[in-house]
UniProtKB/TrEMBL annotation, chain B:
Database matches in PANTHER family: OXIDOREDUCTASE WITH IRON-SULFUR SUBUNIT (PTHR44379:SF5)
Pathway(s) of this molecule: Alkaloid degradation; nicotine degradation
Enzyme Commission identifier(s): 1.17.1.4
Keyword Iron: yes
Keyword Magnesium attributed: no
Top EC group: oxidoreductase
Protein name, entry field: Xanthine dehydrogenase, iron-sulfur subunit
Upper classification of the organism: Bacteria, Bacillati, Bacillota, Tissierellia, Tissierellales
Residue intervals of the 2Fe-2S ferredoxin-type domain: 2-78
Alphabetical list of InterPro entries matching this protein: 2Fe-2S-bd, 2Fe-2S-bd_dom_sf, 2Fe-2S_ferredoxin-like_sf, 2Fe-2S_ferredoxin-type, 2Fe2S_fd_BS, Beta-grasp_dom_sf, Diverse_Oxidoreductases
Keywords: 2Fe-2S, Iron, Iron-sulfur, Metal-binding, Oxidoreductase
Provenance organism: [Clostridium] ultunense Esp
Length: 421, 152
């Protein structure tokens, strides 16, 4: 085996093309006979809709206005097929796609979007996930807003709290976050020389994209081809379909190349966000700061669509204790539909939100017990051989003690530790 | 339509342009200089940075007609006789390139800085690239690359 590469810095294979500006992102690709597409999106969060494209279709230079009527199988979604390619009867969030205008140039697209008439019959909306969980709340899909409920039950938390000397009980909230990748969504679709619907796009999941396009267009996967271009950042934000199916459909219907480029504003409106979470925590420790019990209810707002909510909330649940051994644990993590922007994958995938809660709980317990915040962590951290709340035995390297020591040293924490003792 | 004269990467052009065209569109669509990137369209991100008469500008905020008589350098203009610029080489060697979308603008800001101040301090480098966002958060490597590229 050749191990020359191990331990060496190597040059990125794409670095030269990127420093010279030659690297092509989808918006940099131009084709003969190419036309442009632009999406019409919902302006309200929850409404029944009626669509009239008649006036827009008559505009000189407009080639086609695609709506749900043009989609063979009008559904998609990475785990649950809860998105419509174009909304047919109801919009569930601001930014839901309703129609896709194809025109000779971008200006005509803009003009045509203004001439599509949408009649909104607004219905009661729900923005708070706690309210959305109640039976009498407005429903975003079907008859419940609860998408997913993950549970951990370990030991006996009641017993653990009974034996605790100090208990911290708090509610923490995190906000939604946009990935803000630097290159807004763009793509170009055409029929290739073998008759395949081809989409050139910057994506994190070419294989999912192919499957979802094939399913929506009712084609076999062999008839769909995804070409990943250079990707101008993603951070999880390109793990759902954005413009792929719209472009593929347009290319199939019109048999010519179509390009679409989102503005920064449309990019913000179109793609998923990091789940905002409401985290209700109760943590108990003995007089020496040893953790005895933790109970957490984590509610993640997945907005109008599930996207990766199951995986994200599962991860929040798994990581809810933080890197600490706790003998008695009860966790409920729940993903809930609302009429907010939909939430999905973003760096950390649910593991990012819970430290806001579990670390502040540690600080608060330390203060209640008069223990130094580093000492209380050292007392409870996972070590080699520790068993997590989900029963995983950590058999490999767990050098958390060394990490904390280094951090304490670098931030010059020792003096305060002395004082705290 | 209006006619403008300008110089881009050392070459003179006379172009017919629409009044509402931005310098960004002129460079990308009229001249095919696709290394000029559009990230935010409002002068926040710096992906569309070009050098205009020695100064860095966001080409999304400059109307094409305002470029009349000016001399513009884009990333495509840095290569000399098939050799890339030392700053470009430093970006490659240091590993200052990730998604690459900020890279052309970042390199042009660094070049404009070094043209004026061949030996900037770290703080001056940070200030020099402060108009360019790198969302992959590779700033430390970028600063190291500019350090390496200076004085070459």
């Amino acid at each position: 085996m050749n191990l020359d590469i191990v331990g060496r810095n190597i040059l990125r294979i794409d670095a030269l093309s990127k420093v010279t500006g030659k690297a092509l992102y989808p918006e940099d690709i131009f084709m003969d006979n190419m036309v442009y597409g632009k999406t019409l999106r919902s302006k309200v969060p929850h409404a029944y809709i009626r669509i009239d494209t008649g006036k827009a279709e008559k505009i000189d230079g407009v080639i086609k206005v695609l709506t749900h009527k043009d989609v063979p199988n009008n559904e998609h979604g990475v785990i649950f097929k809860d998105h419509e390619v174009f909304c047919s009867e109801k919009v569930r969030r601001i930014g839901d796609p309703i129609a896709f205008v194809v025109a000779k140039n971008k200006k005509i697209c803009e003009l045509a979007l203004k001439e599509i008439l949408i009649e909104y019959e607004e219905i009661e909306e729900v923005f708070c996930p706690i309210k959305a969980m109640k039976e009498d709340s407005p429903k975003v899909h079907g008859d419940t807003n609860i998408v997913y409920h993950y549970k951990i039950r370990k030991g006996d938390v009641e017993e653990g709290f009974k034996n605790s000397y100090a208990i911290a009980e708090n509610i923490y909230r995190t906000h939604m976050v946009d990935h803000a990748f630097l290159q807004p969504e763009a793509g170009i679709s055409f029929i290739d020389e073998e008759g395949r619907v081809t989409v050139m796009v910057a994506t994190q999941y070419p294989h999912y994209d192919r499957e979802e396009i094939a399913s929506a267009l009712e084609l076999s996967e062999e008839k769909v081809r995804i070409i990943n271009t250079n990707i101008g950042g993603a951070f999880g934000g390109r793990e759902d379909i954005s413009l792929q199916i719209h472009l593929a459909l347009a290319a199939k219907v019109l048999n010519r190349p179509i390009k679409a480029i989102y503005s920064r504003e449309e990019s913000f409106i179109a793609h998923a966000k990091r789940h905002s979470m409401i985290m209700k925590y109760k943590t108990g420790a003995d007089r020496d700061g040893k953790l005895l019990a933790m109970e957490a209810e984590i509610v993640g707002d997945t907005g109008a669509y599930a996207s990766w909510a199951t995986n994200v909330l599962r991860k929040s649940g798994v990581h809810a204790t933080g890197p600490y051994f706790i003998p008695n644990v009860k966790v409920d993590s729940i993903a809930v539909y609302t009429n907010n922007p939909f939430a999905g994958a973003m760096r950390g995938f649910g593991a990012t939100q819970v430290p806001i809660a579990h670390e502040q709980q540690m600080d608060i317990l330390a203060e209640k017990l008069g223990i130094d915040p580093i000492a209380i962590r050292m007392k409870n951290i996972f070590k080699q051989g520790s068993i997590t709340a989900t029963g995983q035995v950590l058999t490999d390297s767990v050098p958390l003690d060394r990490c904390i020591e280094k951090v304490a040293e670098k931030i010059d924490f020792s003096l305060e530790r002395e004082e705290a003792y | 339509m209006v006619e403008i004269k300008l110089k881009v990467n050392g070459k003179s052009y006379i172009l017919e342009i629409e009044e509402d065209m931005r310098l960004l569109d002129l460079l990308r669509e009229k001249l095919g200089l696709l290394g000029v990137k559009e990230g935010c369209s409002e002068g926040e991100c710096g992906a569309c940075t070009v050098i205009m008469d020695g100064k860095v500008v966001n080409s999304c905020l400059v109307m094409a007609f305002q470029a009349e008589g000016s001399s513009i350098t884009t990333i495509e203009g840095l290569e000399k006789e098939g050799e890339i610029h030392p700053i470009q080489q430093a970006f490659i060697e240091v590993g200052a390139v990730q998604c690459g979308y900020c890279t052309p603008g970042m390199i042009l800001s660094a070049k404009a800085l070094l043209d004026k101040n061949p030996n900037p301090t770290e703080e001056e480098i940070r200030e020099g690239i402060s108009g360019n966002l790198c969302r992959c958060t590779g700033y430390n490597k970028i600063i190291q690359a500019v350090e390496k590229g200076k004085g070459v």
